[in-house]
Amino acid sequence: MILRKSETKDLARILELNEESVHFLSPMTMEKLELLRDQSEMLSVIEVDGIVEAFVLTVREGKDYDSVNYLWFSEHYDKFLYIDRVVVSVKMHGKGLGRKLYEAVFEHARRIGVPYVTAEIDINPPNPGSLVFHEKFGFKEVGKQSVSDGKKVVSLQVVEF
Question: Closest Cα to residue 29, out of 14, 15, 44, 45?
């Protein structure tokens, strides 16, 4: 298991992973991914046996990013690291890749002096596995909002350092 910064060669695989879990995420095109990569604070991947099986994408405050959840955090926090998406291939669920990515995010946040790591979790339709996962890392709900034209409700959550 190798955690590393993403490279251009990884982008197609990142899109595949995103599509595999798109029911929990927003859809993404190559153009959008390239834009997000350029805005990201951190775009890291985990390789298992030479294949990218997981990734994390984070964005700092002050970026021109139109995600409604990112914008909510921007309105409420001056300095933060927003976890835009963490994706682990379905076949690798339960093998610790998500934990390893989150540990890397927290380590990076401490290193750069960011006091808050932020994320949202679907609560309608529910994603109980994600809620439990985030709870183990100390995330606390600080708000809720309806997204996707009312098709989803998310819990806006924060870990404070």
Answer: 15
- Residue 81 structural domain: 2-160
Distant-in-sequence, close-in-space partners of 62: CB < 8 Å, separation ≥ 6: 74
What's the pTM? 0.93
For 126, how many CA atoms within 13 A lie in the half-sphere containing its CB?
4
| Per-residue pLDDT, 23 | 67
**Cis link prior to 115 (omega < 30° from 0)?**
no
Task: Give the separation between CA 132 and CA 118, rounded to whole angstroms.
Answer: 16
Q: How far apart are CA 45 and CA 53, in angstroms?
A: 7
In whole angstroms, what is the distance from residue 11 CA to residue 15 CA? 6
Total domain count, the chain: 1
Q: What distance in Å separates the CA atoms of residue 18 and residue 54, rounded to the nearest whole number?
A: 9
The low-confidence residues of the chain, meaning pLDDT below 70, are 23-24
Instruction: Determine contact, residues 56/104, Cβ cutoff 8 Å.
Output: yes
> What is the C-alpha separation between 154 and 144, in angstroms, rounded?
6
The enclosing domain of 58 has a CATH number of: 3.40.630.30
